[in-house]
């Protein structure tokens, strides 16, 4: 029986891997799996060698403070993979962890095929990493077509598979009246998927909602969460005494809420693409510690954090970062958009044009699963 080790580094990678392996199981049900994964892969009956929380860190300073622990996990993970001896090591995102493991594994056992899903963002920083990848990666699966040039230059096998957040179909129609009454408008809020992000952004967002409530009495604010942090957010919302806030984690309900939202506020990250795909006007917010922010600002070579803005090299979706990420600025920006519908329409049109340019014709997970299946026999 063929074997695949699935290597993720955080919750989002676990979710991406779940989508791919779900498709692969339909193509070839006779594969044995082991992983570093979370609840999504677990639901497919795939065992994880340890808890994903053990390796999830955010911010350069956190990584530095945990550097010895991370190195130990890299060595431990590589050892477990070599013991499992898979035909393919399928790594997903989180390159500072997953690719260090892949490099160690490939060095010791070159016969293990290494396939990486979600290319490191070399167009943001550290482009010279590509030369190193050539030594230990057999195939890189790209989310964006414009990434090809970076890997073609070094003759690294790569395939554009598309971005999974742009695959979504919006057919579900479910009753959400228990969450939001029909006469209320909805603003979707994405406060982050890590506790460190939530601790920073939730107080700011709650103060923003209090400002909004002074002017609007017909808006419900729905916080989108993963199952892991839903209760954490719920308890903070409960303490706020606000009666027009909800938190959801169910994927189907999220889809329905998004389809009915008039606006969205999202922390910087890939979730902003999902919002764009639902044709919802939005803004981006984010706040790091000062030292992390200035370190990143020094290292990166791009002006924006949102992918739509990066591709267009101009601010189409407003970005409120660091000192601008405060309740007052968020309120001013959202209120400005709500009072100027023509600006919301303009943003949606500009975003749609970009989405059409970067979309794959077939689903990303299906494309990735097909490549994995073909790699098992080639």
Structure description:
It is built from 16 helices and twelve strands. The protein is an alpha/beta fold. The protein has two domains: 2-165 and 362-377, Glycogen Phosphorylase B (Rossmann fold, 3-Layer(aba) Sandwich); 185-358, Glycogen Phosphorylase B (Rossmann fold). A six-stranded parallel sheet has the order 2-1-3-4-5-6, with helices on both faces. α4 packs across α5 and α8 packs across α14 (327-338). The two termini are 15 Å apart. The relative contact order is 0.12.
CATH topology of the largest domain: Rossmann fold
Taking the alpha carbons of the first and last residues, their distance comes to 15 Å
The CATH class of the largest domain is identified as Alpha Beta
Q: Helix count?
A: 16
Query: Can you tell me the overall shape?
Result: globular
Sketch the major β-sheet. 6 strands, parallel
Strand residue content: 15-25%
Overall SS class: alpha/beta
Care to count the β-strands? Answer: 12
Count of domain modules: 2
Please give the structural blueprint.
Elements: E1 2-7, H1 11-27, E2 31-36, H2 39-42, H3 60-65, H4 67-84, E3 88-92, H5 95-108, E4 113-117, H6 129-133, E5 139-142, H7 148-152, E6 158-160, E7 185-190, H8 195-215, E8 219-224, H9 230-240, E9 245-248, H10 251-260, E10 261-267, H11 271-277, E11 282-286, H12 290-299, H13 307-312, E12 319-321, H14 327-338, H15 341-358, H16 364-377
Parallel strand pairs: 1-2, 1-3, 3-4, 4-5, 5-6, 7-8, 7-10, 8-9, 10-11, 11-12
Helix pairs in contact: 1-16, 4-5, 8-14
């Amino acid at each position: 029986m063929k074997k695949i080790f699935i290597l993720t580094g955080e919750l989002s990678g676990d979710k991406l891997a779940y989508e791919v392996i779900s498709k692969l199981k339909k193509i070839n049900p006779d594969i044995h799996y082991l992983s570093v994964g979370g609840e999504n892969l677990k639901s497919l009956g795939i065992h994880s060698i340890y808890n994903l929380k053990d390796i999830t860190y955010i911010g350069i300073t956190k990584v530095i403070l945990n550097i010895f622990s991370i190195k130990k996990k890299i060595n431990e993970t590589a050892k477990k993979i070599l013991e499992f001896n898979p035909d393919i090591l399928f790594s997903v995102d989180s390159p500072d962890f997953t690719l260090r493991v892949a490099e160690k594994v490939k060095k010791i056992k070159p016969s293990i095929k290494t396939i990486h899903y979600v290319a490191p963002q070399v167009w943001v920083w550290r482009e010279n990493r590509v030369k190193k990848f050539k030594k230990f990666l057999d195939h890189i699966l790209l989310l964006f077509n414009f990434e090809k040039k970076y890997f073609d230059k070094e003759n690294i096998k790569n395939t554009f598979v598309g971005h999974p957040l742009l695959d979504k179909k919006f057919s579900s129609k479910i009753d959400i009246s228990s969450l939001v009454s029909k006469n209320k408008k909805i603003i979707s809020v994405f406060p982050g998927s890590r506790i460190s992000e939530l601790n920073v952004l939730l107080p700011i967002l709650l103060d923003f909602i209090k400002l909004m409530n002074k002017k609007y009495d017909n808006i419900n604010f729905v916080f989108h969460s993963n199952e892991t942090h839903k209760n954490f957010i719920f308890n903070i919302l409960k303490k706020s005494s606000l009666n027009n806030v909800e938190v959801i984690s169910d994927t189907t309900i999220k889809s329905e809420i998004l389809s009915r939202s008039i606006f969205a506020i999202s922390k910087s990250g890939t979730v902003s693409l999902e919002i764009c795909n639902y044709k919802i006007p939005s803004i981006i917010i984010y706040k790091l510690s000062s030292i992390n922010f200035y370190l990143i600002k020094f290292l990166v070579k791009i002006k924006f954090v949102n992918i739509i803005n990066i591709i267009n090299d101009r601010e189409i979706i407003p970005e409120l970062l660091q000192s601008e990420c405060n309740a007052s600025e968020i309120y001013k920006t959202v209120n400005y958009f709500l009072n100027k519908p023509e600006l919301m329409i303009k943003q949606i049109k500009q975003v749609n044009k970009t989405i059409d340019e970067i979309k794959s014709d077939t689903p990303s997970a299906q494309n990735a699963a097909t490549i994995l299946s073909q790699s098992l026999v080639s």
